């Protein structure tokens, strides 16, 4: 959240006109007029429904027959290459590849203002405030480019054509997933069925090969009839060069046919002599190809509607300024046989907007993909050359991810938000620097106090997070004199205390997801200064920071605030761990004293017997906005973060559990409708009839719960923001409150059901909001996952179905599958590496027995191991003398 966001909301009267219809200031209400707490303590959840959340189930499939396809938009381009959506019926839409995103002018995937009745008045909601939540973008309204496929079936003299769209088939089924989605087209009166698989190369731990500005569309046509048929497949794609800015007379669209190593393609560019066209943000190229050297090419066709002539190679003149090229292939199919073809669409628009260049100088040299590819033809050529490798690894990861005992819906919701990296919310510049908004086009500068919640990128593409730490947070955004980390780097001048603490924790995490200690040793001087900055904010020396400073709720709060105090304790504990590894014993001791004092005083002074609170500043009292005695969603965020990086407890377990129970009791609403109708001013990220956890509630019904001088930021307290909810769900899971963790995660999942809005787009301040990537942390806690690459340490303690558990894992140099089974006193576990390698010195499992056999199998051979083992209660530690390396394809087996 940002200063510009603050002014935007204030000037837009989003909060300040929300309460009093009489014309009074929204919060200038009589002392006893603050609405009463009205979230029921008894959630009245059906026990059978709660139990069903644990079921494996099946992948979520959205159907035409249930009217669930209109809003679907899966990001199907590479990382940081703009936004291209796969729609529910398999057509691509949105085409946010033209560098449109611009704060204040072109925010969100569908920049618009909508009207929303908040229960007391009808308000204008802009893109950064949830307009796409109230009225989601509809695919058919955002088809910037003509693109699609059609299949023709000929039998005897009969010829029938169906386009791959919703209108032409009895049923279209969209099987959700990420990074691969599957669309199936069926019609009982048509002799063939069609399956489309769509993705861009996505290989965890390989950011470069996951960053193609391209989409792969694999189409399979199967003859389901009893007779042989002739099948023709046609694909088409509009020339997308200079699509937005070029005007008649500016130049000429060109389609050029090319063939290379089995690839048949159409390269689309725009020829012009006009400098204003050449320097526009949409000046570049697109390309469309098929991995078949025998395909026919139509450099120009008019596919509305598709007729037999298109399959015969007849070319047409461009219509309405659109130059559309086509590719066709023909086969005869016997009953049961398939036609399989791989199409690729690529783009290349390497001219960031001037407004972006003004925000970050790295943008002046263009994008990272521009250093790898000269144009869209080069994108297709490179991708086709390595197609088998890239596709097989992408599909291997997709299979590894879903090859789990965890519920399908849970796997979907906890992973899907990493698709944010494949939208116009994120950029990677030619220098290699990663840079992002908070949400698409809104709030610049890879904001520390937002991005610290996101757990996905660090585990899937750790090199991006390490680069962000090293070159930005400890580089251009760092103040060596004080150790302050400016929370938006060049786009700000101040640190944010929660962002500072979170970034220290991220430094420890980035060290843990490294193969060795070079990241920590190379950055330790700056990290130490960053930790010292946190220590310096404790003015009275009680281990609880008390310096007024910016935070993610866009206000400077006074006093000792539980969620900030606890977060800083966790950060300093991470600093202690890093100091110990760097053998900086003196600094480690300083950190340890702070942590000890903070733990004690936070428990004694900020816990009210039920939950943690905000103690006012002794001098200022409650004159300014704060959470004070209310129940705040992030109150034990520090302990939640500690679980993510395997730190010892930083907050008392019983008090943490009580705080979580209070959040469940006072903040989780099975239906948010009654609450948001009476507590107005928040933005619509959950609507009546939907479940969610409210940010801040007033269980004691105090007349002035948030201070004497209530400001516009109070509106945040009445919202459901999914990133915060995911953080709480992860903590609930880690503490063993699995019912509550699953219910809360499912609440978000259901809010984003395709019948209502796009399941791939969790919204806060604009679309594809970065904080929502906290969802991956819930998956990690469901696995009880801890990892430390330089130490060669891996621990797993599953929270869901531990008696028969299987799930994926990622490490510094590889990824694979972990499984365990318990059958009476017999326990077994396996670690299978499916990509890269895994170095291990210690493996810790929640096993009650002692190992009778530990075997490493590689290429069918058993390799000798030297092990020791120790016990800590139910935790079994297996130590590999000298360490082991599990190579790709190898399996480590443990039998107790």
From TrEMBL:
Superkingdom of origin: Bacteria
Signal peptide start and end residues: 1-28
Domain Glycosyl-hydrolase family 116 catalytic region: 498-776
Keywords assigned by UniProt, alphabetized: Signal
The name this protein goes by in its record: Uncharacterized protein, contains GBA2_N and DUF608 domains
GO terms under biological process: carbohydrate metabolic process
MF terms in GO: hydrolase activity, hydrolyzing O-glycosyl compounds
Family annotation (Gene3D superfamilies): 1.50.10.10
Residues of the Glycosyl-hydrolase family 116 N-terminal domain: 73-381
């Amino acid at each position: 959240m940002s200063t510009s966001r603050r002014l935007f909301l204030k000037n837009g009267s989003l909060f300040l006109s929300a309460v009093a219809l009489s014309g009074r200031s929204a919060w200038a209400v009589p002392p006893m007029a603050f609405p009463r707490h009205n979230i029921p303590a008894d959630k009245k959840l059906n026990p059978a429904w709660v139990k069903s959340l644990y079921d494996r189930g099946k992948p979520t499939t959205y159907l035409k027959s249930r009217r669930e396809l209109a809003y679907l938009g899966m990001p199907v381009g590479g990382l940081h290459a703009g936004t291209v959506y796969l729609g529910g019926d398999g057509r691509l839409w949105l085409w946010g590849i033209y560098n449109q995103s611009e704060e204040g002018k072109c925010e969100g995937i569908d920049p618009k203002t909508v009207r929303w009745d908040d229960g007391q008045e009808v308000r204008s909601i802009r893109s950064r405030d949830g307009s796409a939540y109230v009225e989601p973008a509809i695919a058919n309204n955002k088809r910037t480019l003509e693109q699609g496929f059609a299949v023709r079936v000929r039998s005897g003299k009969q010829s029938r054509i169906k386009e791959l769209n919703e209108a032409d088939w009895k049923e279209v089924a969209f099987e959700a997933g990420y990074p691969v989605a599957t669309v199936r087209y069926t019609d009982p009166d048509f002799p063939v069925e069609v399956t489309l698989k769509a993705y861009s190369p996505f290989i965890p731990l390989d950011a470069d090969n996951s960053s193609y500005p391209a989409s792969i569309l694999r189409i399979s046509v199967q003859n389901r009839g009893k007779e042989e048929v002739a099948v023709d497949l046609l694909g088409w794609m509009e020339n997308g060069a200079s699509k937005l800015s070029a005007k008649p007379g500016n130049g000429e669209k060109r389609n050029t046919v090319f063939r290379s190593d089995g690839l048949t393609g159409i390269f689309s560019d725009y020829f012009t002599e006009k400098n204003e066209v050449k320097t526009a943000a949409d000046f570049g190229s697109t390309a469309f190809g098929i991995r078949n050297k025998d395909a026919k090419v139509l450099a120009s066709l008019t596919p509305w509607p598709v007729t037999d002539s298109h399959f015969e190679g007849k070319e047409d003149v461009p219509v309405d300024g659109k130059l559309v090229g086509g590719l066709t292939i023909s086969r005869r199919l016997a009953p049961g046989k398939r036609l399989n073809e791989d199409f690729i669409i690529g783009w290349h628009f390497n001219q960031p907007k001037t407004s972006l260049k003004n925000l970050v100088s790295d943008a002046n040299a263009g994008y990272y993909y521009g250093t790898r590819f000269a144009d869209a033809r080069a994108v297709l050529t490179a991708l086709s050359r390595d197609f088998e490798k890239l596709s097989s690894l992408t599909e291997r990861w997709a299979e590894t991810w879903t090859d789990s005992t965890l519920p399908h819906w849970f796997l979907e919701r906890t992973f899907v938000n990493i698709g944010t990296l494949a939208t116009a919310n994120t950029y990677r510049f030619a220098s290699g620097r990663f840079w992002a908004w908070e949400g698409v086009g809104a709030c610049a500068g890879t904001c520390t106090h937002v991005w610290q919640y996101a757990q996905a990128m660090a585990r899937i593409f750790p090199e991006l997070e390490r680069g962000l730490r090293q070159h930005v947070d400890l580089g251009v955004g760092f103040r060596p004199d004080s150790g302050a980390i400016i929370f938006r780097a060049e786009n700000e001048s101040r640190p944010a205390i929660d962002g500072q603490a979170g970034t220290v924790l991220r430094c420890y995490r980035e060290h843990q997801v490294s193969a060795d200690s070079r990241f920590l040793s190379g950055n330790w001087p700056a990290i130490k200064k960053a930790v010292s900055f946190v220590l310096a904010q404790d003015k009275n020396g009680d281990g609880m920071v008390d310096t007024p400073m910016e935070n993610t709720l866009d206000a400077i709060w006074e006093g000792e605030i539980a969620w900030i105090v606890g977060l800083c304790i966790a950060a300093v504990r991470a600093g202690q761990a890093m100091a110990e590894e760097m053998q900086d014993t003196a600094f480690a001791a300083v950190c340890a004293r702070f942590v000890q004092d903070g733990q004690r005083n936070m428990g004694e002074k900020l816990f009210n017997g039920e939950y943690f609170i905000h103690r006012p500043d002794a001098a200022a009292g409650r004159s300014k906005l704060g959470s004070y005695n209310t129940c705040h969603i992030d109150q034990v965020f520090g302990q939640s973060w500690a679980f993510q990086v395997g730190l010892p407890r930083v907050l008392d377990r019983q008090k943490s559990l009580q705080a979580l129970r209070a959040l469940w009791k006072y903040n989780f609403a099975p239906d948010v409708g009654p609450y948001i109708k009476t507590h107005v001013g928040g933005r619509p990220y959950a609507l009546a009839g939907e479940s969610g956890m409210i940010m801040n509630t007033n269980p004691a019904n105090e007349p002035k719960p948030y201070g004497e001088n209530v400001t516009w930021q109070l509106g945040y307290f009445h919202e459901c923001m999914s990133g915060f909810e995911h953080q709480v769900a992860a903590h609930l899971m880690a503490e063993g409150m699995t019912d509550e963790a699953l219910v809360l995660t499912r609440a978000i999942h259901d809010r984003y059901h395709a019948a209502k809005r796009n399941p791939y787009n969790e919204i806060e301040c604009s679309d594809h909001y970065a904080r929502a990537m906290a969802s991956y942390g819930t998956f990690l806690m469901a696995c009880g996952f801890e990892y430390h690459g330089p130490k060669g340490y891996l621990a797993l303690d599953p929270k869901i179905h531990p008696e028969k558990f299987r799930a994926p894992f990622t490490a510094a140099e590889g990824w694979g599958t972990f499984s365990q089974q318990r059958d009476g006193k017999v326990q077994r576990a396996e670690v299978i590496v499916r990509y890269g390698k895994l170095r291990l010195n210690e493996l810790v499992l929640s096993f009650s027995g002692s190992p009778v056999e530990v075997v490493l199998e590689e290429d069918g051979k058993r390799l000798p191991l030297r092990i020791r083992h120790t016990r800590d209660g139910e935790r079994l530690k297996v130590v590999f003398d000298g360490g082991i390396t599990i190579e790709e394809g190898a399996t480590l087996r443990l039998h107790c």
